[in-house]
Amino acid sequence: MIREAVEKDRIIFDKLARHPLQSWAWGEFRKQAGVEVLRLVQADEKKIREVYQITWHKIPKIKRYIGYCPKSAIPDAEAMKGINKEAGKKGAIMVKFEPNEKDIEASQKQVRELAGIFDFRAGKPLFTKYTFQLDISKSEEEILKNMNQKTRYNVRLAEKKGVKIVEDNSEEAFEEYWKLTEETTKRQKFFAHGKSYHRKMWQTMIVNGGGHLLKAIYEGKTLTTWVLFELNDVLYYPYGASSNQNKEVMASNLMMWETIKLGKKHGCKMFDMWGSMGPEPDRSDPWYGFHRFKQGYGGELTEFVGTYDLVVNRTLYKIYILVDKLRWIVLKLLAKLRK
What's the predicted TM-score (pTM) here? Predict the structure, then answer.
């Protein structure tokens, strides 16, 4: 049975959520940002077995929507039938899925079975297909031992230089985070959500949701700020920003190490670094340095099963795909103009 979740389902919903993007708090944040949210539960006679959180994104100028279900389980046929029905009622042309499931034969089989029943096809990814996941149930000594030698050296160097990592969830800390976010996006030439989006995220996921805002401080200056989420014994690193000053003190290396220690202190078993490049990264890619930074901590490179679109209206779906390609061409041109 598939039904819409209600407030009394909140605790079990979060226990079954596979990722912070499926958490109840994330849904509340998206609502505050003006996005419609649908929470579905799949239950038998005795208990809820699975949960799915879908956001509805209106297509400008027309009364049609795109559904997005990131980091859920792969729906079975019963769940997909219910989701397809809800998408039809909403006037959605598609629902995009990016399951939080590893790319193994069992997951691939589930995808093939769905494709045999529904118009369920490979789609354009919004989330990275890979991430680094670090087992932090191990001792600190073992984690340090498994780090890249250079990474371990940089951690110790930052400690010797006097870099301090503190948790600060205050309004002032958020302003520092946002200032560094603007600096980082300009330096790295990538697009980011605006300040209002990040403020609502900070308020919902950190102040009221049990997340963390960490700062790396050196000689009275904040050099790095990170946002962390926790869910079901897993620690996540979704957002980070840094200054271009004093890079020689390796503040980000110590930030990562202190993040790992924080996760251990809170009883987390796994640290998910929220995305990476693949097993053969392009060294000329602008994200290669960030990928190598994460790799240095000895985590496992994990591949997810991929991105798939449940097509509800085939004609409009084809038009949407074409328009989306044109949109990204324009955005890339704008990015070049920002140089």
Answer: 0.94
